[in-house]
Here is the input.
Amino acid sequence: MSWRTSSRMPVISVMSVVMLFAAHIASAQCDGPKRPPTAVEAKAYSDGFALFQRMAPPTPPGWTAIDSRTESVITFICADPNYNFTRWSFSRTFNRSADEMQARGDAALRQTEAVVARAEERRQANAAKLADIERRQTELAKRVAAAAEQQNLAALAAISADSDKLAAEREALTTDSAAETEATAIGAQVDRDSTAQFTVIVGETEVGRSSAFKPMPSAVGQGYRQDYQESSGNPHADLVVVLPPTPSGAGQTVVQISGDTARAEALLAGTKLR
Here is the structure.
Protein backbone atom coordinates (compact mmCIF):
# COMPACT_ATOMS: atom_id res chain seq x y z
CA MET A 1 0.00 0.00 0.00
CA SER A 2 1.29 3.47 -0.78
CA TRP A 3 0.08 6.78 0.62
CA ARG A 4 -0.41 9.82 -1.60
CA THR A 5 1.25 13.17 -1.03
CA SER A 6 -1.34 15.84 -1.80
CA SER A 7 -4.53 15.12 0.08
CA ARG A 8 -6.08 13.51 3.10
CA MET A 9 -6.68 9.89 2.24
CA PRO A 10 -4.14 7.20 1.27
CA VAL A 11 -3.83 5.94 -2.26
CA ILE A 12 -3.88 2.17 -2.32
CA SER A 13 -3.21 -0.37 -5.02
CA VAL A 14 -5.86 -1.68 -7.40
CA MET A 15 -6.01 -4.97 -5.52
CA SER A 16 -6.45 -3.16 -2.22
CA VAL A 17 -9.25 -1.09 -3.73
CA VAL A 18 -11.05 -4.27 -4.76
CA MET A 19 -10.52 -5.79 -1.33
CA LEU A 20 -11.59 -2.64 0.49
CA PHE A 21 -14.71 -2.27 -1.63
CA ALA A 22 -15.69 -5.86 -1.13
CA ALA A 23 -15.05 -5.58 2.57
CA HIS A 24 -17.15 -2.44 2.76
CA ILE A 25 -20.18 -4.05 1.18
CA ALA A 26 -19.84 -7.18 3.27
CA SER A 27 -22.30 -5.78 5.76
CA ALA A 28 -24.40 -3.76 3.31
CA GLN A 29 -27.25 -4.76 1.04
CA CYS A 30 -26.28 -6.99 -1.86
CA ASP A 31 -27.56 -6.50 -5.38
CA GLY A 32 -25.94 -9.78 -6.40
CA PRO A 33 -25.03 -13.06 -4.76
CA LYS A 34 -23.98 -13.14 -1.14
CA ARG A 35 -22.58 -15.79 1.12
CA PRO A 36 -21.93 -16.35 4.81
CA PRO A 37 -18.43 -15.44 5.97
CA THR A 38 -16.03 -18.22 6.71
CA ALA A 39 -14.96 -18.69 10.31
CA VAL A 40 -11.60 -17.08 9.49
CA GLU A 41 -13.27 -14.08 7.81
CA ALA A 42 -15.77 -13.61 10.62
CA LYS A 43 -13.03 -13.77 13.25
CA ALA A 44 -10.79 -11.36 11.32
CA TYR A 45 -13.66 -8.90 11.12
CA SER A 46 -14.76 -9.24 14.76
CA ASP A 47 -11.20 -8.99 16.04
CA GLY A 48 -10.59 -5.95 13.85
CA PHE A 49 -13.78 -4.25 15.01
CA ALA A 50 -12.92 -4.85 18.65
CA LEU A 51 -9.38 -3.57 18.09
CA PHE A 52 -10.73 -0.43 16.40
CA GLN A 53 -13.14 0.24 19.25
CA ARG A 54 -10.34 -0.18 21.79
CA MET A 55 -7.77 1.91 19.92
CA ALA A 56 -9.89 4.81 18.66
CA PRO A 57 -9.19 8.13 20.40
CA PRO A 58 -12.05 9.85 22.26
CA THR A 59 -14.18 12.41 20.46
CA PRO A 60 -12.84 15.93 21.15
CA PRO A 61 -15.18 18.18 23.17
CA GLY A 62 -17.56 20.04 20.90
CA TRP A 63 -17.11 17.51 18.09
CA THR A 64 -19.19 14.63 16.74
CA ALA A 65 -18.02 11.24 15.48
CA ILE A 66 -19.35 8.86 12.86
CA ASP A 67 -18.01 5.33 12.40
CA SER A 68 -17.81 3.65 9.02
CA ARG A 69 -18.88 0.38 10.66
CA THR A 70 -21.14 -0.12 13.63
CA GLU A 71 -21.78 -3.87 13.48
CA SER A 72 -19.52 -6.01 15.66
CA VAL A 73 -20.08 -9.12 13.54
CA ILE A 74 -20.75 -9.80 9.88
CA THR A 75 -23.46 -12.15 8.72
CA PHE A 76 -22.80 -12.19 4.98
CA ILE A 77 -20.33 -11.07 2.32
CA CYS A 78 -21.16 -9.72 -1.12
CA ALA A 79 -18.28 -11.11 -3.09
CA ASP A 80 -16.74 -13.92 -5.08
CA PRO A 81 -17.57 -17.07 -3.11
CA ASN A 82 -14.05 -18.35 -3.80
CA TYR A 83 -12.34 -15.32 -2.23
CA ASN A 84 -11.38 -15.01 1.42
CA PHE A 85 -11.60 -11.59 3.06
CA THR A 86 -9.27 -11.08 5.99
CA ARG A 87 -8.38 -7.42 5.36
CA TRP A 88 -10.79 -4.95 6.95
CA SER A 89 -10.83 -1.18 7.31
CA PHE A 90 -12.57 0.69 10.14
CA SER A 91 -12.79 4.50 10.20
CA ARG A 92 -14.09 7.16 12.53
CA THR A 93 -14.69 10.63 11.10
CA PHE A 94 -14.64 13.52 13.54
CA ASN A 95 -16.46 16.77 12.74
CA ARG A 96 -16.93 19.98 14.64
CA SER A 97 -20.47 20.45 15.87
CA ALA A 98 -23.07 21.99 13.57
CA ASP A 99 -23.50 24.86 16.02
CA GLU A 100 -19.79 25.66 15.92
CA MET A 101 -19.69 25.56 12.12
CA GLN A 102 -22.81 27.73 11.94
CA ALA A 103 -21.17 30.26 14.25
CA ARG A 104 -18.07 30.23 12.08
CA GLY A 105 -20.17 30.73 8.97
CA ASP A 106 -22.07 33.63 10.50
CA ALA A 107 -18.83 35.32 11.57
CA ALA A 108 -17.33 34.77 8.13
CA LEU A 109 -20.41 36.30 6.49
CA ARG A 110 -20.09 39.44 8.59
CA GLN A 111 -16.38 39.69 7.83
CA THR A 112 -16.99 39.14 4.12
CA GLU A 113 -19.66 41.81 4.03
CA ALA A 114 -17.18 44.25 5.55
CA VAL A 115 -14.57 43.34 2.94
CA VAL A 116 -17.09 43.82 0.13
CA ALA A 117 -18.13 47.19 1.55
CA ARG A 118 -14.54 48.38 1.64
CA ALA A 119 -13.98 47.14 -1.91
CA GLU A 120 -17.06 49.05 -3.07
CA GLU A 121 -15.80 52.21 -1.37
CA ARG A 122 -12.51 51.80 -3.20
CA ARG A 123 -14.29 51.27 -6.51
CA GLN A 124 -16.35 54.41 -6.05
CA ALA A 125 -13.27 56.40 -5.05
CA ASN A 126 -11.58 55.30 -8.27
CA ALA A 127 -14.63 55.82 -10.48
CA ALA A 128 -13.42 59.21 -11.80
CA LYS A 129 -9.97 57.82 -12.61
CA LEU A 130 -11.52 54.83 -14.40
CA ALA A 131 -13.76 57.15 -16.41
CA ASP A 132 -10.71 59.15 -17.46
CA ILE A 133 -8.99 55.94 -18.56
CA GLU A 134 -12.06 55.05 -20.64
CA ARG A 135 -11.89 58.48 -22.32
CA ARG A 136 -8.19 58.13 -23.07
CA GLN A 137 -8.70 54.62 -24.46
CA THR A 138 -11.41 55.95 -26.77
CA GLU A 139 -8.99 58.57 -28.04
CA LEU A 140 -6.35 55.89 -28.58
CA ALA A 141 -8.81 53.88 -30.67
CA LYS A 142 -9.32 56.89 -32.94
CA ARG A 143 -5.54 57.35 -33.24
CA VAL A 144 -5.16 53.68 -34.13
CA ALA A 145 -7.70 53.99 -36.93
CA ALA A 146 -5.98 57.10 -38.33
CA ALA A 147 -2.48 55.59 -38.12
CA ALA A 148 -3.64 52.36 -39.72
CA GLU A 149 -5.24 54.26 -42.59
CA GLN A 150 -1.96 56.11 -43.15
CA GLN A 151 0.03 52.90 -42.64
CA ASN A 152 2.14 54.77 -40.10
CA LEU A 153 3.95 51.96 -38.30
CA ALA A 154 5.90 54.25 -35.98
CA ALA A 155 2.68 55.88 -34.79
CA LEU A 156 1.06 52.46 -34.25
CA ALA A 157 4.02 51.35 -32.14
CA ALA A 158 3.77 54.47 -29.98
CA ILE A 159 0.03 54.02 -29.58
CA SER A 160 0.57 50.39 -28.55
CA ALA A 161 2.95 51.52 -25.81
CA ASP A 162 0.40 54.08 -24.59
CA SER A 163 -2.29 51.41 -24.61
CA ASP A 164 -0.15 49.11 -22.45
CA LYS A 165 0.33 51.93 -19.93
CA LEU A 166 -3.41 52.56 -19.76
CA ALA A 167 -4.06 48.85 -19.26
CA ALA A 168 -1.59 48.83 -16.37
CA GLU A 169 -3.32 51.84 -14.81
CA ARG A 170 -6.70 50.12 -15.10
CA GLU A 171 -5.32 46.93 -13.57
CA ALA A 172 -3.95 48.84 -10.59
CA LEU A 173 -7.29 50.56 -10.01
CA THR A 174 -9.50 47.51 -10.40
CA THR A 175 -7.36 44.88 -8.64
CA ASP A 176 -7.80 44.76 -4.88
CA SER A 177 -5.21 42.23 -3.76
CA ALA A 178 -5.71 43.12 -0.09
CA ALA A 179 -9.42 42.30 -0.30
CA GLU A 180 -8.70 39.06 -2.13
CA THR A 181 -6.16 38.03 0.49
CA GLU A 182 -8.55 38.87 3.30
CA ALA A 183 -11.41 36.94 1.69
CA THR A 184 -9.16 33.89 1.27
CA ALA A 185 -8.13 34.09 4.92
CA ILE A 186 -11.78 34.27 6.01
CA GLY A 187 -12.62 31.13 4.06
CA ALA A 188 -9.59 29.31 5.45
CA GLN A 189 -10.61 30.16 9.01
CA VAL A 190 -14.06 28.65 8.47
CA ASP A 191 -12.58 25.36 7.27
CA ARG A 192 -9.60 25.11 9.60
CA ASP A 193 -9.57 22.12 11.93
CA SER A 194 -13.18 21.27 11.13
CA THR A 195 -12.80 17.56 10.35
CA ALA A 196 -10.38 14.70 10.97
CA GLN A 197 -10.29 10.97 10.41
CA PHE A 198 -8.96 7.99 12.29
CA THR A 199 -8.62 4.65 10.48
CA VAL A 200 -7.47 1.19 11.45
CA ILE A 201 -6.71 -1.36 8.75
CA VAL A 202 -6.20 -4.95 9.88
CA GLY A 203 -4.76 -7.74 7.79
CA GLU A 204 -2.84 -5.34 5.55
CA THR A 205 -0.36 -7.15 3.30
CA GLU A 206 0.72 -4.31 1.00
CA VAL A 207 2.37 -1.88 3.40
CA GLY A 208 4.41 0.82 1.66
CA ARG A 209 4.73 4.57 1.62
CA SER A 210 5.56 7.42 -0.71
CA SER A 211 8.71 9.49 -0.29
CA ALA A 212 6.59 12.36 1.08
CA PHE A 213 6.17 10.40 4.32
CA LYS A 214 9.04 10.89 6.73
CA PRO A 215 9.81 8.71 9.77
CA MET A 216 8.42 9.94 13.07
CA PRO A 217 8.88 8.61 16.60
CA SER A 218 6.30 6.06 17.70
CA ALA A 219 5.97 4.27 21.02
CA VAL A 220 4.82 1.18 19.12
CA GLY A 221 5.70 0.01 15.61
CA GLN A 222 6.96 2.33 12.88
CA GLY A 223 5.64 5.86 12.52
CA TYR A 224 5.51 8.06 9.42
CA ARG A 225 4.06 11.46 8.64
CA GLN A 226 3.63 13.98 5.88
CA ASP A 227 2.90 17.65 6.48
CA TYR A 228 1.58 20.10 3.91
CA GLN A 229 -0.76 23.02 3.39
CA GLU A 230 -4.23 22.53 1.96
CA SER A 231 -5.36 24.69 -0.96
CA SER A 232 -6.80 27.12 1.59
CA GLY A 233 -3.41 27.47 3.23
CA ASN A 234 -4.41 25.58 6.37
CA PRO A 235 -1.82 23.18 7.84
CA HIS A 236 -2.52 19.47 7.44
CA ALA A 237 -0.86 16.26 8.56
CA ASP A 238 -1.23 12.61 7.65
CA LEU A 239 0.12 10.32 10.36
CA VAL A 240 0.69 6.59 9.92
CA VAL A 241 1.73 3.92 12.40
CA VAL A 242 2.47 0.41 11.15
CA LEU A 243 2.12 -1.93 14.12
CA PRO A 244 4.23 -5.07 14.45
CA PRO A 245 2.63 -8.19 12.98
CA THR A 246 0.95 -10.49 15.45
CA PRO A 247 1.78 -14.21 15.54
CA SER A 248 -1.85 -15.21 15.11
CA GLY A 249 -2.90 -12.62 12.57
CA ALA A 250 -2.31 -12.40 8.84
CA GLY A 251 -0.77 -9.18 7.58
CA GLN A 252 -0.21 -6.08 9.66
CA THR A 253 -2.30 -3.50 11.45
CA VAL A 254 -1.99 0.06 10.12
CA VAL A 255 -3.26 3.17 11.92
CA GLN A 256 -3.91 6.30 9.86
CA ILE A 257 -4.83 9.74 11.17
CA SER A 258 -5.56 12.74 8.97
CA GLY A 259 -6.45 16.30 9.90
CA ASP A 260 -5.20 19.68 11.03
CA THR A 261 -1.61 19.26 12.20
CA ALA A 262 -2.28 19.91 15.89
CA ARG A 263 -5.53 17.92 15.78
CA ALA A 264 -3.89 14.90 14.16
CA GLU A 265 -1.14 14.92 16.75
CA ALA A 266 -3.71 15.14 19.57
CA LEU A 267 -5.69 12.23 18.13
CA LEU A 268 -2.54 10.14 17.86
CA ALA A 269 -1.71 10.94 21.48
CA GLY A 270 -5.19 9.68 22.43
CA THR A 271 -4.86 6.47 20.41
CA LYS A 272 -4.31 3.29 22.42
CA LEU A 273 -1.59 1.72 20.29
CA ARG A 274 -0.87 -0.97 22.90
Summary: The first strand starts at residue 63 and ends at 67. Residues 4 and 11 are 5 Å apart (CA to CA). The two ends are 23 Å apart (CA to CA).
